[in-house]
Amino acid sequence: MEYDVKDLGLAEQGKLRMEWAGQSMPVLKNIGERFKKEKPLSGMRIAACLHVTTETANLMRVLKDGGAEAYLCASNPLSTQDDVAAALVKEYGIPTFAIKGEDNASYYRHIMSCLDAKPHITMDDGADLLVTLHSEKKELIKDVIGGTEETTTGVIRLKAMAAKGVLSYPVIAVNDALTKHMFDNRYGTGQSTIDGIIRATNRLLAGSNFVVCGYGWCGKGLASRAHGMGANVIVIEVDPLRALEAMMDGFRVMPLAEAAPIGDFFCTVTGDIHVIRYEHFEVMKSGAIVCNSGHFNVEIDLDALYAKATARRMIRDFVEEITLPSGAHVNILAEGRLVNLASAEGHPSSVMDMSFANQALSAEYLVQNYKSLAKNVFKVPDPIDQEIARLKLASMGADIDVLTPEQVKYLSSFDMGT
């Protein structure tokens, strides 16, 4: 078996951490037990480009239990948990290609290693696997029946490909499932981003000005959690509806040019490029802390910052101090990459339980329905979304009411007025 991980000697530690995460993933466990019996993925080779974490590892085990040959590489150079990668290889026989801190050349080499497996299904977190397949391994596309995508950023890329007619197979936008983005993006990103910032800096949030760039589901979660820690939250938006929502939620809204001189913490969660630029850096307070929790590190224009810097030094793990010509300095966390995964452990396993349940069931859906699907981006079917919500509620000891026949009739009629 081919693989590329840091140290197989870390496998026992990784196995224990996988077990710990698995205890909070009852929905995925439930699906895994059915997969073991039914083997719905038999004969399928699945190449996954996801964050190599304890939660992802449990997904990979479920895919293998479902009969698939599963291959895994990292979707971010800094998000890999090396002990987990080792455990997947040594304890579970899953070919894994990921090392925390790998350079870009290694990152894409690992993607190519997964593609060398000649997959039938691709699983992405940011669409790098699919885009690489379409650009450098086109000869393998004929064997691919479909794919899935985990993130907002990836879905944006895939929809652009579909609009231009260059997407070569159907992809299910797992990110757009209600049981994914309403919970993973909001509660997962919200908590894990704060966790990453605190682990990296050990700075107090209470009383600070915390600037959140973007008020989508991730931004909403981050703003809420920063507020809960006592920060004064400022929201930056370009969408008037989202800006209005942020105002109604009790946050200040202003252009970044106004927030830059007063902010203590800045975090981008937009999915767009160069949100924080040098014009903002040069007016920030000395000591300002800047990070990103969007998928790619392009949200912060680091090249422009580095070009103007008079000095750079790593002042502590995951914190780079950049000195500006004025003598002031700003602190960049985790090289501008996902701070929640680079300097912490990513989303809590209980919320990833639903996200990865969507991945597993979407893979099963592709196997069953790919012949009838066009080369486009599709939402997760509503019955899958509903079933995951039902299973999650049951695992939490909650139950809900059922409509009476009278209520069903009323909701489907038009002649019952006042």
Features:
Rossmann fold; alpha/beta; 2 domains; Adenosylhomocysteinase; 418 residues; seven-stranded parallel sheet; eight-stranded mixed sheet
Short account of what is shown:
This protein has helices at residues 11-22, 26-38, 54-65, 82-90, 104-115, 128-136, 152-163, 178-201, 217-228, 240-248, 256-259, 278-281, 302-308, 339-342, 349-369, 382-395, 405-411, and strands spanning 45-50, 69-74, 96-97, 121-124, 146-149, 171-173, 209-213, 232-236, 252-253, 265-268, 288-292, 311-316, 319-323, 329-333, 377-379. It has 418 residues and is α/β, with parallel strands linked by helices.
Q: What value does the average pLDDT take?
A: 97
- Cα-atom Rg, whole angstroms? 22 Å
Indicate the overall shape: globular
Q: Label the CATH architecture of the largest domain.
A: 3-Layer(aba) Sandwich
Number of strands: 15
Count of DSSP H/I helices: 17
CATH topology of the largest domain: Rossmann fold
| Uncertain regions spanning at least 5 consecutive residues | none
What structural class is derived from the secondary structure elements? alpha/beta
Binned strand content? 15-25%
Strand neighbour order, sheet with most strands: 9-8-7-10-11-14-13-12
Query: Into which percent range does the helicity of residues fall?
Result: 40-55%
- The figure for the number of domains is 2
The CATH class of the largest domain is identified as: Alpha Beta
CATH superfamily of the largest domain: Adenosylhomocysteinase-like
Distance between the termini: 70 Å
Domain S-adenosyl-L-homocysteine hydrolase NAD binding: 185-346
EC number: 3.13.2.1
Enzyme class: hydrolase
GO molecular function, one term: adenosylhomocysteinase activity
